[in-house]
Specification:
It is built from 14 helices and 18 strands. With 435 residues, it is an alpha/beta fold. The chain has a 7-stranded mixed sheet, with helices on both faces. Strands 5-4-3-6-7-17 form a 6-stranded mixed sheet, sandwiched between helices. Strands 1-2-18 form a 3-stranded antiparallel sheet. The protein has 2 domains: 223 residues, Aldehyde Dehydrogenase, Chain A, domain 1, CATH 3.40.605.10; 181 residues, Aldehyde Dehydrogenase, Chain A, domain 2, CATH 3.40.309.10. The structure holds nicotinamide-adenine-dinucleotide.
Length: 435
């Protein structure tokens, strides 16, 4: 367990070379073990998540434990199909030859995950890497220490420890891992560290998947039921106290809609978290004091519609809506990643599209509109990792959709068969008869 990273990777590579991880039987067995880890230890994982992030048990089960179980079930049902070699037509001068593609596992894969969904964001990529037949080093986030400890113990108990290792720790441990040669690095977290990961990977020409963040806008059109919009925005934004990579970061709408939306957002917040969200069992806390202080400094960025209260000792920051927020205000400079929802006014759709396109390409773009033409224009005239029309966050839970960013929000994708694409090499094979 306490191998030097060099020895650890050499040991995993030696196991990979024996062919142990390649058969479908090994892959499905490991996925079933991972499934059992989740279903047999849901309460313990939820307790750790509560310790790290004050997540309610129900939220932990739906967004972390059951989420990964569903992803595994989806994969187990289809894996044999996905892995089937695919025949390709050959040109006339090769008549009689056979061409096909085959998915080869890459080798030893490093998965580095963040603290905000520490179970889902470690185990969903690990499941994909195993399904593709790789040996894996899993690196949970040190900023969710209770969950990291439980995951490390359970992964060692349930999975094939000769092919799957867990390394706990922070910057020094991750830096030591990144000095090794891997066959793929899958990183989820912020863009600053994403650059560190990519630089380290370049040393060995190791391919990377970077699942990053960014400011995901939510455009609200005229003529929509604003009570429904408010309810859906609140549900997506304040889940996990806003610490969700695909949370709507800010609202973009015209001045009249902004005014009409304000009381409805306040009402929707109260309906979800009660008059005093500090007492709500389903409202989370900020992960640590550094993030708390960063967020508290953003509260003066606009007129407070609701919220604004905080308590540093318990890292409580009330769900907050800010109106009349200027594009150059502090809250609009970087991904908020916390429970503050700014409303920024634009004249209409043209200005909203320009606003989005003037900024880094977001992980998600959301829009609420009855107009097919508006939805079509947003889809064709903007670029984002995903586009959620009518409901924030949910696209991430569709296993048949690729999940990932573009530009500053990341590169590559995963979930379902896209994890097989990410963690395999699609090898071209041509067989020409000998005579
Ligand atoms: P974090 O601080 O937990 O860091 C992520 C990982 O990077 C950790 O395992 C950590 O040990 C490692 N790390 C940190 N500094 C390092 C360094 N200098 N060198 C090597 N490794 C290092 O998480 P975070 O970055 O605060 O996560 C929040 C960010 O992640 C947000 O921007 C959010 O949008 C993004 N995010 C993206 C997704 C996605 O799926 N696209 C999901 C969740 C979070």
């Amino acid at each position: 367990m306490s191998d030097h990273p060099n020895d650890l990777v050499a040991r995993l590579r030696a196991i990979f070379r024996t062919g142990r991880t390649k058969p479908l039987s090994w892959r499905t067995e490991q996925l079933q073990c991972l499934r059992a880890l989740l279903t047999e230890n849901g309460r313990e994982l939820a307790a750790a998540l509560h310790g790290d992030l004050s997540k309610s048990e129900q939220e932990s089960m739906s967004t972390e434990v059951d989420f990964v179980v569903r992803e595994i079930d989806h994969t187990l049902e289809r894996l044999a199909d996905w892995l089937r070699p695919e025949a390709a037509p050959v040109p006339d001068w090769l008549a009689g030859a056979q061409a096909r593609t085959q998915y080869d596992p890459l080798g030893v894969v490093l998965v580095i995950s963040p603290w905000n969904y520490p179970v889902q964001l470690l185990l969903a990529p690990v499941a994909g890497a195993l399904a593709a037949g790789n040996a894996v080093v899993a690196k949970p986030s040190e900023l969710a220490p209770a969950t990291s400890a439980v995951l490390a113990r359970l992964l060692r108990k349930y999975l094939d420890t000769e092919a799957i290792a867990v390394v706990e720790g922070g910057v020094p441990e991750t830096t030591a891992l990144l000095a090794q040669r891997f066959d793929h690095i899958f990183y989820t977290g912020n863009g600053r560290v994403g650059r560190v990961v990519m630089r380290a990977a370049a040393e060995y020409l190791t391919p990377v998947t970077l699942e990053l963040g960014g400011k995901s806008p939510a455009f609200v059109d005229t003529g929509v039921d604003l009570a429904v919009v408010a309810e859906r925005l609140i549900a997506g934004k304040f889940l996990n106290a806003g610490q969700t990579c695909v949370a709507p970061d800010y609202v973009l709408t015209d001045p009249a809609t902004a005014r009409a939306l304000e009381p409805l957002l306040a009402a929707a917040l109260e309906a979800r978290y009660g008059e005093d969200p500090a007492a709500s069992p389903v409202y989370g806390r900020i992960v640590n004091e550094r993030h708390f202080d960063r967020l508290a400094a953003l509260l003066d960025s606009g007129r407070t519609v609701i919220g604004g209260e905080y308590d540093r000792a318990s890292r409580y920051l009330a769900p907050t809506v800010l109106a009349d927020v200027a594009p150059d205000s502090p809250v609009m400079q970087e991904e908020i990643f916390g429970p503050i929802l700014p409303i920024v006014k634009v004249a209409g759709l043209d200005e909203a599209i320009a606003f989005v396109n003037d900024r880094a390409r977001p992980l998600a773009l959301y829009a609420f509109s009855q107009s097919e033409e508006t939805r079509r224009r947003l889809s064709s005239e903007t670029s984002s990792g995903g586009l959620g029309l009518g409901l924030p966050l949910a696209h991430l839970a569709v296993s048949d959709l690729p999940f990932g960013g573009v530009g500053e929000s990341g590169m590559g994708s995963y979930h379902g068969r896209y994890s097989i694409e990410t963690f395999s090499h699609r090898k071209a094979i041509l067989e020409v008869p000998m005579g």
